[in-house]
Design brief:
Helix content: under 10%
Number of helices: 0
Distance between the termini: 112 Å
Shape: extended
């Protein structure tokens, strides 16, 4: 804190006298302002006035222009100097370098220097490296050294091995040994297994345990007339020279129902045959090699389809559509 001219620091920090006082006790008399009136420049607080007038009253006499006429360069209001080439030659500063043999010459008195190979030998800078035993030599006085990284057994081939097989024995040359790759049970076929499937959907594997895949049964129900169920992409893959394919339609009641089977592609030109089955519960359709179905009961109907190819592996795909009036049943297909 400061009281008068005494400055004190708290907590025992002591005090001192600030005797650097403003003698005139004025806080503004050190501030001056500069101003201009015409060509007079004035500094306030008795700072005085000076004139900044252009004494010759000419605003353009300080501006000069440069011009060149021929080889003379002139400045307005001033003098003229000559830029002429004193020797009047436009080419004497241009020099040409040339070579004759081992001499290189610079024109216009630039001198000549020799770039000759002092020993006049065009091949002595070329060296050849060679090796005799473990000694490696560089020609042309390049010296020699000993290459002591030798093959301890002095054999260039003993690191090369050959693998061969004799029966079930596999041998590596140069003492690499022999191992047997024999099939321990000496059977070439016991790893081969056959898959079979029967009409009861049993999938069997030779030498293994079979599984039952379960009947692929699709339940359907409905009443009234019209299409109540359509199974799309019902696939029967028929080869041209195959055995008969069997489709079974099973009815768990004795109700009346109609069956229509229509093949994809161009039809054979007849309409689907409608068959009523009101006796028994199973109707088995057998496809012959001409793409037609016969029936094992005394009802007759056929599939309307068209074989697309006589290729031995080309089959066709069918839709199976059932029409029913009052029928509940199952369709089993395999």
């Amino acid at each position: 804190s400061k009281a008068g001219s005494t400055v004190t620091l708290s907590d025992g920090g002591g005090s001192f006298i600030d005797d650097d006082t403003d003698a005139d006790a004025s806080v503004i008399n050190e501030i001056q302002a500069v101003s201009r009136a015409g060509t007079d420049l004035t500094l306030s607080l008795g700072g005085g006035t000076v004139s900044i007038a252009d004494n010759d009253n000419d605003t353009s006499n300080e501006i000069q222009s440069l011009s060149v006429i021929g080889t003379n360069l002139s400045i307005s209001g001033g003098n003229t100097v000559s830029l002429a080439d004193n020797d009047n030659s436009t080419a004497n500063e241009v020099q040409t370098v040339s070579r004759a043999g081992t001499d290189i010459t610079l024109s216009l008195g630039g001198g000549t220097v020799s770039v000759a190979d002092n020993d006049n030998d065009t091949s002595n800078e070329i060296q050849t490296i060679s090796k005799v035993g473990s000694t490696v030599t560089l020609s042309g006085g390049g010296g020699s050294f000993t290459d002591d990284d030798t093959d301890a057994d002095a054999s260039t081939i003993n690191e090369i091995q050959i693998v061969s097989r004799a029966g079930t024995d596999l041998t590596l040359s140069l003492g690499g040994g022999t191992i047997s790759i024999a099939d321990n049970d000496n059977s070439t076929i016991n790893e081969l297994q056959d898959l079979t499937i029967d009409d009861s959907a049993n999938l069997n594997i030779g030498g293994g345990t079979g599984v039952n895949l379960g009947a692929r049964i699709t339940p359907i129900s409905g009443s009234g007339t019209g299409t109540i169920w359509t199974h799309p992409l019902y696939a029967v893959s028929v080869q041209y020279d195959s055995v008969e394919q069997i489709v079974t339609v099973a009815n768990d009641t004795a109700y009346y129902f109609d069956v229509c089977i229509v093949g994809y592609g161009t039809t054979a030109g007849a309409t689907p045959y409608s068959m009523c089955n009101d006796v028994g519960s199973t109707l088995t359709l057998s496809m012959d090699l001409d793409g037609y179905f016969g029936v094992t009961s005394d009802f007759g109907f056929h599939i309307i389809t068209n074989r697309e190819s006589t290729s031995a592996t080309q089959g066709f795909v069918m839709d199976v559509t059932l029409w029913s009036s009052t029928w509940n049943g199952l369709v089993t297909y395999y």
